[in-house]
Amino acid sequence: MTDTSDLTKLAQKLVAEGPHKIEPTPRRVRALFGGQYVIDTREAYHVWEHPYYPQFYVPTSAITKDANFTKNSSVPSTSDKVQFATLSAGGKRTERVLVFTTKELPDLIKIDFAALDQWFEEDVPIYQHPKDPYKRIDILASTSSVKVELDGTTLATTTSPLFLLETSLRPRYYLPPTSVNWQVLSKSDTETYCPYKGRANYYNITVNGKEYKDLVWYYQYPTLESAAIAGHLCFYNEKVDIWVDGTKEKQ
């Protein structure tokens, strides 16, 4: 049976407190599930359940004829203002669905982002969660010197880094692969996804006989907006020592 305890807590929180913020979006939002488009709408909402990034909530009319959608029981302690629901298509089924009838979220459906196979904004795939319309990424070529060390071992040094500046986050330094000490790197099986940059792969670092997992990541095929960082490597600032133009960063 599907564990929906986290959705229960979310529904109770949103009924009691309301969302952090909600805004309609003009984007066409679609989602694939079991080989079928189960969502297709231009009437989606960005709903910030917390201050950090939004999720998509959609009206009932967004559910396509190729999907089977059924409301189930009410979520406990929500005064019948939120119901669980089931969505199925193409032989697949998920119960990671909530239907809201609150003042702030009138007849809006939340489907857990990870429960569906692929989401799209217009014709562009999105990953991990919807993009925040109030965030942006700038990728700036620089001639500043960047040196990376760990436990006294030099991991990389370059005077041609790319500075990636993402709203509200610390700078990240993407370094050319030829500037890296490959003797201390080994491939990791870890993959993560970013809505702004795409799929990231990782390397581990081994220095002085100790292995440090996933301290380096790279995007082999980044999204179009982040195409400049393709093949460049980024070291986890918080876990290594980095100097920019001779000044050591605070971790």
UniProtKB/TrEMBL annotation:
Per the record, the coiled-coil ranges are none
Identify the residues that the record assigns to the DUF427 domain, covering every copy.
Answer: 29-92, 146-238
Organism's domain of life? Eukaryota
InterPro entries according to UniProt: DUF427 (IPR007361), DUF427_sf (IPR038694)
- For this entry, the protein name equals DUF427 domain-containing protein
